[in-house]
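Quick one, probably user error.
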């Protein structure tokens, strides 16, 4: 799908176009594959038109040479309303994970009327006095080096190691996570370009504006999130008027299949 003269986004949809649209927005350096087929099918079976897409520099969307991305964080988040325009949709329910949850908040603030509601998973808006990532996760990142990006097995092992480091104490479903990562690596035009997300200019802080969000909001957060500890989700739910909070026990910075029996009904209720 072409969203402007220079950018093409790879988009996938599941369900009936006449049903209420859900736009799923992935996290940092993540393609649409982190919204697995079965999860999307469950949402579609609940009477929703589910749309997911590859961010720039992931999957099969426009990809830039590693280290040479010519866009900003604001461009990345504005791809969401541009995608709605290209799809002929005036608005959608925005469901964002991690960085995608930050994008969902900013779309609601910067593009009034485009968000019917928000579901914010494992995300934050920053803010003073919120806890930093866990010492264990920081130690993990301090030891990480880039894999050989030309070796798919090495790349898969590298990403899976991060998935484990971000997980909580629920049993880690290695086969399911490996299937997601393997598909993402196989679909990527240039998997090394995913690192560009960490090099693009960021957005100004928006914590002080959360009270301006007037659409129904549901915050979903793991109680053992090592990247954005639970206090981040709790703070979001307090700062956004009338927001709800669903805590996922023993869950880290992740959306494991063991939680879908909670997440899917909650999203369907919220977007009804």
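Nope, works fine. Designed sequence:
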């Amino acid at each position: 799908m072409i969203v402007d003269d220079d950018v093409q986004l790879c988009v996938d949809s599941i369900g009936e176009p006449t049903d209420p649209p859900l736009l799923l927005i992935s996290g940092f350096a993540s393609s649409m594959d982190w919204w697995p087929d079965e999860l999307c099918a469950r949402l579609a079976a609940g009477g929703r038109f589910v749309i997911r897409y590859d961010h720039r520099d992931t999957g099969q969307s426009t990809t830039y040479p590693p280290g040479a991305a010519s866009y900003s964080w604001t461009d990345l988040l504005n791809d969401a309303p541009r995608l709605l325009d290209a799809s002929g949709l005036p608005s959608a329910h925005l469901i964002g994970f991690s960085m995608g949850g930050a994008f969902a908040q900013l779309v609601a603030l910067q593009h009034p009327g485009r968000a019917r509601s928000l579901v914010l998973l494992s995300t934050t808006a920053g803010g003073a006095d919120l806890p930093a990532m866990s010492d264990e996760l920081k130690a993990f990142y301090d030891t990480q080096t880039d894999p050989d990006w030309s070796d798919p097995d090495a790349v898969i092992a590298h990403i899976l190691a991060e998935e484990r480091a971000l997980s909580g104490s629920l049993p880690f479903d290695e086969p399911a996570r490996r299937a997601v990562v393997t598909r993402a690596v196989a679909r990527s035009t240039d998997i090394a370009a995913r690192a560009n997300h960490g090099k693009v200019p960021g957005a100004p802080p928006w914590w002080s504006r959360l009270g301006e969000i007037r659409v129904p909001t549901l915050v979903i957060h793991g109680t053992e999130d090592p990247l954005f500890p639970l206090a981040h989700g709790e703070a979001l739910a307090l700062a956004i008027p009338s927001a709800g909070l669903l805590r996922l026990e023993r869950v880290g910075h992740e959306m494991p299949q063991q939680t879908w029996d909670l997440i899917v009904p909650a999203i369907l209720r919220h977007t009804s």
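The helical segments are 37-45, 73-87, 99-110, 135-143, 152-166, 174-187, 230-239, 260-270.
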